[in-house]
Amino acid sequence: LQSDWPLLARFCWLAGIDEELLDSEGVKLLLKMVKMLRLCDYSAVDIRTCMAHAAMYMRKTVQVCGSQMNQQEAANTAVLLMFIAHSYTQDETCPLKT
């Protein structure tokens, strides 16, 4: 979606990801990630919430080891952190039966 470009740009800005860390293949991967969430019927607010959390996780990651990551690692790390953010903000726990 066209509306995903500004969303992704804001995510990269918040996460401290620059052109050196994210190539066109990484952008495609991140756009696919957002598309998957949309296809799973997550609301725009939920997607932005996950991305905001993931951006903060990624900012810390970039500060600590950004100079050691190549572009593919940076994109894969961003997707992984998005999964973790989704788990933190959206997943519902299921009580274990005893």
Draw up the topology in text.
Blueprint: H1 4-15, H2 24-39, H3 44-65, H4 71-89
Give a verbal description of the structure.
This protein has 98 residues and is mainly α. It has helices at residues 4-15, 24-39, 44-65, 71-89. α1 packs parallel to α3, α2 runs parallel beside α4 (71-89) and α3 crosses α4.
List its traits.
98 residues, mainly alpha
Give a nutshell description of this structure.
By secondary structure, the protein is mostly helical.
Q: How many runs of DSSP E, i.e. beta strands?
A: 0
How many separate helices? 4
Sheet with the most strands?
none
Structural class: mainly alpha
Question: Between the first and last Cα atoms, what is the distance in angstroms?
Answer: 45 Å
- The H-and-E topology, N to C, reads as HHHH
Helicity, as a percent range: over 70%
Give the overall shape, derived from the CA principal axes.
Answer: globular
Mean pLDDT: 90
Radius of gyration computed on alpha carbons: 14 Å
The unreliable regions are none
What share of the residues does DSSP label as strand, in percent? Answer: under 5%
